[in-house]
Design goal:
By secondary structure, this protein is an alpha/beta fold. It has three domains: about 10-100, 3-Layer(aba) Sandwich (Rossmann fold), CATH 3.40.50; about 200-360, Rossmann fold; about 365-425, Alpha-Beta Plaits (2-Layer Sandwich). It is about 40% helix and about 20% strand. It has 14 helices and 14 strands. A seven-stranded mixed β-sheet has the order 6-7-5-8-9-11-10, sandwiched between helices. It has a four-stranded parallel β-sheet with strand order 2-1-3-4, sandwiched between helices. Strand 3, helix 3 (about 85-95) and strand 4 form a beta-alpha-beta unit. The longest helix has about 40 residues, at about 155-195. The two termini are about 50 Å apart. One of its GO terms (cellular component) is cytoplasm. GTPase that associates with the 50S ribosomal subunit and may have a role during protein synthesis or ribosome biogenesis. Belongs to the TRAFAC class OBG-HflX-like GTPase superfamily. HflX GTPase family. Keywords: Cytoplasm, GTP-binding, Hydrolase, Magnesium, Metal-binding, Nucleotide-binding. Its main location: cytoplasm.
Length: about 450
């Protein structure tokens, strides 16, 4: 029911209204991208301006008549609003326009329904659609509503409506139970990765920022990537090797968008939990987008909403090929990697990204000189096995002078295994952390 679309392309009249309140405003360009991503053919865009929405029909009577005439002129199948409509506004608009009416939330839900591929993804989309539909059930049964009270004068609409609500409620409850099982399985997988001390990195960002293109290039995968909104819906996990860190779990997640419907955030909480519990968030940004600062703020808002606001972030300015600039790595005042400028499509700047990931994920990295006696060949061999030796020399007394670089955890583990006192071999201050690593 929810994942079937008509074979013939639908034609739509689009409606965008500018409001004085900045919080109420939407982007007409993004609206057009959403419509095209849904597979609907836009006939024309009707624009207007209001101080605040009309409580009954969202728009004024003059604009309503204009839209009705334009719809009939183009023979459009549907009228789509770039705003969230209340159930009563949607119902009144359909009655006045004699046409199907869809709001921004319904449009996004439709795109999600088309993109969902996995069983979990389809369940999450269906849950969001059912909860959205539950407030609009009366619209489909207006012809059965009772007109007056009294015995023998009650229509069957009330009974049918209650039946539909009960069925919807039962289905919603069943989906919640199945998603709870998925959530439990994900939690178990995350705990297993934590026990194995495998860091996790989640790609997050505004929709169509290039996350999947970057994901494919880094992991040599074939995740669906296209120049359209919400090309990726289902999360994908792949293994990535990072210098000085080793294996890392990289997750590609659904893109965010301004005014992302709250029901979608709730329904996709199991998926978005990958971001909330990641060791590091790689926030991919379309560097060529004139609204990139606003988009970054929208992503941060959703991250706060899902409990991922405190997870460390590395910003990746993607699509520098459109800007004609060279790859570069920017650091903060403590020397910590903050922004990587790269092109995922042209695979430029990846070595800088690897460098940044290595530094941020290997926060317990030990980089120092080590002096070993000639008889400590076992320790020398163990450090070579860990690929920790950067440089090796011998002095006149035959002592081994090593420059080592490895995680502190690995260093202490190998020393304990060989029965050695780690601090005995390190110079004073070698175990101190840099200022930006200290709690």
């Amino acid at each position: 029911m929810f994942f079937e679309r008509p074979d013939a392309g639908e034609t739509a009249v689009l409606v965008h209204v500018d409001f004085h309140d900045e919080q109420e405003r939407e982007d007409p360009g993004e609206f057009l991208e959403l419509v095209r991503s849904s597979g609907v053919t836009p006939a024309t865009l009707v624009e207007g301006s209001r101080r605040r929405p009309d409580p009954k029909t969202f728009i004024g009577s003059g604009k309503l008549e204009e839209i009705r005439e334009i719809r009939e002129l183009h023979g459009a199948d549907i009228v789509i609003f770039n705003h969230a409509l209340s159930p009563s506004q949607e119902r009144n608009l359909e009655r006045a326009l004699k046409s199907r009416v869809l709001d921004r939330t319904g449009l996004i839900l439709d795109i999600f329904a088309q993109r969902a591929r996995t069983h979990e993804g389809k369940l999450q989309v269906e849950l969001a659609q059912l909860e959205y539909m539950s407030t609009r059930l009366v619209r489909g049964w207006t012809h059965l509503e009772r007109q007056k009270g009294g015995i023998g004068l009650r229509g069957p609409g009330e009974t049918q409506l209650e039946t539909d609500r009960r069925l919807l409620g039962a289905r919603i409850k069943a989906i919640h139970k199945r998603l709870e099982k998925v959530r439990t399985q994900r939690d178990q997988n995350r705990r297993a990765r934590a026990r194995a001390e495998i860091p996790s990195v989640s790609l997050v960002g505004y929709t169509n920022a290039g996350k999947s293109t970057l994901f494919n290039a880094l992991t040599e995968s074939e995740v669906y990537a296209a120049d359209q909104l919400f090309a990726t819906l289902d999360p994908t996990l792949r293994r990535l090797n990072v210098a000085d860190v080793g294996p890392v779990v990289l997750a590609d997640t659904v893109g965010f968008i301004r005014h992302l419907p709250h029901k979608l955030v709730e329904s996709f909480r199991a998926t978005l939990q990958e971001a909330a519990e990641a060791s590091l968030l790689v926030h991919v940004i379309d560097a060529a987008d004139p609204d990139r600062d606003f988009n970054v703020a929208q992503v941060d808002t959703v991250l706060e909403e899902i409990g991922a606001g405190d997870v460390p972030q590395l910003l990746v300015m993607n699509k520098i090929d459109l800007l004609g600039t060279a790859p570069r790595l920017e650091r903060d005042e403590h020397g910590r990697p903050r922004i990587v400028w790269l092109s995922a499509r042209e695979a430029r700047g990846f070595e800088l990204l690897q460098e940044a990931l290595g530094e941020l994920l290997a926060e317990d990295l030990l980089e120092t000189g080590l002096t070993l006696a000639p008889e400590q060949g076992r320790l020398r061999a163990a450090l070579h096995e860990l690929n920790a030796v950067q440089q090796e020399q011998f002095d006149e007394q035959g002592r081994i002078l090593l420059d080592i670089r490895l995680p502190r955890r690995d260093f202490f583990q190998v020393m304990a295994r060989l029965g050695e006192n780690a601090e005995h071999y390190l110079p004073p201050g070698a175990l101190d952390r840099p200022e930006w690593e200290r709690p």
